[in-house]
Specification:
CATH architecture of the largest domain in chain B: 3-Layer(aba) Sandwich
Helix content of chain B: 25-40%
CATH topology of chain A: Rossmann fold
Order of helices and strands of chain B: EHEHEHEHHEHEHEHEEEHEEHEHEHH
Number of domains of chain A: 1
Structural class of chain A: alpha/beta
Radius of gyration of chain B: 20 Å
CATH superfamily of the largest domain in chain B: Thiamin diphosphate (ThDP)-binding fold, Pyr/PP domains
Strand content of chain B: 15-25%
Strand order of the largest sheet of chain A: 1-2-3-7-6
Shape of chain A: globular
Oligomer: heterodimer
Largest interface: A-B, 50 and 47 residues
Number of domains of chain B: 2
Number of strands of chain A: 7
Largest sheet of chain A: 5 strands, parallel
Number of strands of chain B: 14
CATH architecture of chain A: 3-Layer(aba) Sandwich
Radius of gyration of chain A: 19 Å
Number of helices of chain B: 13
Largest sheet of chain B: 7 strands, mixed
Order of helices and strands of chain A: HHEHHHEHEEEHEHEHHH
Number of helices of chain A: 11
CATH class of chain A: Alpha Beta
Shape of chain B: globular
Distance between the termini of chain A: 61 Å
CATH superfamily of chain A: Thiamin diphosphate (ThDP)-binding fold, Pyr/PP domains
Strand order of the largest sheet of chain B: 3-2-4-5-7-6-12
Chain lengths: 328, 339
Amino acid sequence: MTAGRGMQLSRERLLEAYRSMRTIRDFEERVHEEFEAGNLPGFVHLYAGEEASAVGVCSHLDDGDRICSTHRGHGHSIAKGCDVEGMWKELHGSSEGLCGGKGGSMHVADLSKGMMGANGIVGGGPPLALGAAMAAKTLKTGKVAVTFTGDGGSNQGTTFESMNFASVFRLPVLFVFENNGYAEATSSSWSVACGDIVNRAPAFGMPGTQVDGFDFFSVHDAAGEAVERARSGGGPTLIEVRFGRFYGHHEGDNQSYRAAGEVDALRRDRDCLKIFRRRVTEAGLLDDAGLDAVDADVAGLMDRCVEAARAAPRPTPDQLTADVYVSY
Amino acid sequence: MARVISMRKAINEALFQVMEEDPTVILLGEDIAGGEGSPGDDDAWGGDMGITKGLQPRFGKERVMDTPISESAIIGTAVGAATSGLRPVAELMFVDFMGVCFDQIMNQAAKFRYMFGGKARTPVVIRTQIGAGYNAAAQHSQCLYPVFAHIPGIKCVVPSSAYDAKGLLIQAVRDDDPVIFFEHKVLYDEVRDDVPEEMYAVPFGEANIVREGSDCTIVAIARMVHKAGEAAEALAGEGVECEIVDPRTISPLDEDAILESVEQTGRLVVVDEAYPRCNMAADIAALAAREAFGALRAPVRTVSPPHTPVPFAPELEAAFIPSAGKIADAVRRTVGYAA
């Protein structure tokens, strides 16, 4: 284990990172329960197990920096500062949801927080991130854009175009490839022809690095370097985050494509929250009591959100044709 | 001061003026300057048809960007930048190329405002060429605008005159929704009319009554407005007076103007260079059948190409494009209809 820049974060920043990861975990575990109970409509894709990636990257960003997410976007949304109660209500389709109930799980967005949207289209985000980065470059704001893409999205032509384009224009953008081993049910060890996604970086003229996605500090340090490079005009970076998800592609996925015991082993040995706790307590940066307090606080928040979302108002019929310039 | 200029010049002038007016307007596309990284002139082409000529020398490479041939990246950049404080005008050369970047248009740009609960603005303009007439064959000659009119959230502009092209493009750049601006490549030089030097905007959703007449309404789009004009001239000699309605934007569509004209003439012919199934002619015919049934004195007729790809051979292409003769025949059959 290295003592990188992440280990030098202040106590407050470390607690903030832990709170964000814990919020994502609890959010996803409760979404899983609510979905199983039949309380949530639509398709949901859970991020549990991958929290260190979203938080490790987004801890370097402010509201003016922009991210594009994927269909598995709850974690990115929370890490980027989206209102958790608003997200819960959005998943219920309430008019008080973050998008008025018109987006749902796959389209959570809050541009005021720099969250340009979860995205139902694999490979839909990278071209959009170019735009956010182009705006930052043109307007000289010093802001950056990050596109989170899965291993599945890493194989899309739109992604290849975007990486080339970003290098040609030296755009302040990070391509974060969250390789959780499966594009839906298909293994990335089979679908990524060059083995590791990071191997594509030199072909597109940008630096690339591969990090342990179960370890917040590994992601945090690599992202920090990439964000600094982007802010100082050094252009794009590719980061491949290696880890695994605790749930299936979507809720209801029987995951028969996975090895027996795979998820149990991940939860037991590779839980980013446990690893974070061990590292910061062993280093004497935080103590168990402080982390336990965060756990309790987040659990309470989630209870309140779930209750509020169940009782939240439904959209009225006039909302059907609102926010589109013309309807026939 | 108005003077007679081509549609080519009118579009170029509109781009100059919107860029002067608003520093957040940027242009990007393949060869819109033409020459980036090449040993010769930087503004060698000024667009494959020369429409953007002179803009990069005036506004610099930071605002007028040649790009790699990467349509998804071009449109994604424009759309993402539009949600992040710029007003990009992307050029996508030919509408036929939209297939390679369609997701960024139909699932991203078109959806943001609604899908994000009204909180996103996406002021992006995509300029693209449409239309047959240059023997450019099946992949460079289509009129695919009905595909885009089908999708809620996108505004679709189809100018037929230099005056409208300038005013509609200025409106498009000022608009907060995604706009696709369809330029009929034959009209760049075929059309010349009075265009004021100063800036002006032509509002969307307001049809233009190009010619007044009491016997038959002809709704025509883009280059077809001129073919309809030729037909109307010929028919006037036969004592048949046509009223020509140019919707100018097909989404939003000025239904009121179309219906008002049909209420007065009792007859409707719709002319559309797009393939006949699910095109604007079919849509407008359905509108009249639904909303003006009582006023109609004859079945609505549509004049469209056959349901084939655009052929290359000049005589086949000429047969493909709706002609003034075909339009006049349709009007004659409509006016001569006896129940």
